[in-house]
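Human:
Class, as today's exercise, you are to examine the entry below, and be ready to discuss the fold:
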Amino acid sequence: TVRAAEVYDGAALAAKKQHQVFCACLPGLESALAAELESLGVATPNAIEGGVEFLADPQTIHRVTLRSGVVASLRIRVAKFDARHFKQLELGLSKVKWGRVIAAGSPWRVEVTCARSRLYHTKAVAERVERVVADALGTPPLETGLVKGTSHAGHDGLVIHLRLRRDRCVVSVEPSGLGLHRRGWRLDAGSAPLREDLAFAMLSLGGWESHMSLLDPFCGSGTLVIEAARRRAGIPPGTERIAELERWAEASAANVTAWTRAQAERVSAAATAEADGAIVGRDIEEAQLEAARANASRAG
């Protein structure tokens, strides 16, 4: 049997428009992420290994997606149930109202991990998930039979994550399939690139504020100075990825209010940017500087 109270979209949480969310981050940044989420209006964020978990309504999830710079990925819990055999797995999955989880026409794919469970064949589990969801939505996945860690050939779509551990199944959806740490502007990575979320965290933990000068004498493809310049200009970290939240069915037009407010803040910040200290990136290799300039242009 499936404990219906733990199928989140049919439980009391959904009635209150609250969702259980897990935001992943790079190792060691859990406390920094929790502090950032609290500043964004998240009530009682709980830092655990690998990230932060919390309860939030759709508006808060929208705000976190748009404004968090430390988050690597955001997952919305959909269901949690026991699955000791395939019939039990399919029953639990069938109780999820997938049309209320994934927006119509949105691309989607499945990632599965299994550990210490009777159901240990990840490909077979993934095939069951794909079949149940495809039947519910009427649309096939981007790719079939793939498990976590498999190359997805660059496909970016909503990801259904199924984690099976000790016969306990946790199902989540990640609207931004490639992760929020990929802002979308760094197409020229250069050699040994710095991740955008790590650069953002370095600025915060290092005490840099937007009115200060900044010099990166070995800037490479420009990640650190670009993240600093975007922060000064009031450009939210998730600007290029926020539209992907619309793959989640509960992302609504009401959230446009948060977006409009963010754009107004950006204009206000940009008006005073010229009076602040210089942000300078240098490098010994001209090719790296060319990549940095191209990335800066795309980043606005």
Notes: Strands lie at 19-24, 46-48, 51-56, 73-82, 108-115, 158-165, 168-174, 214-216, 279-281.
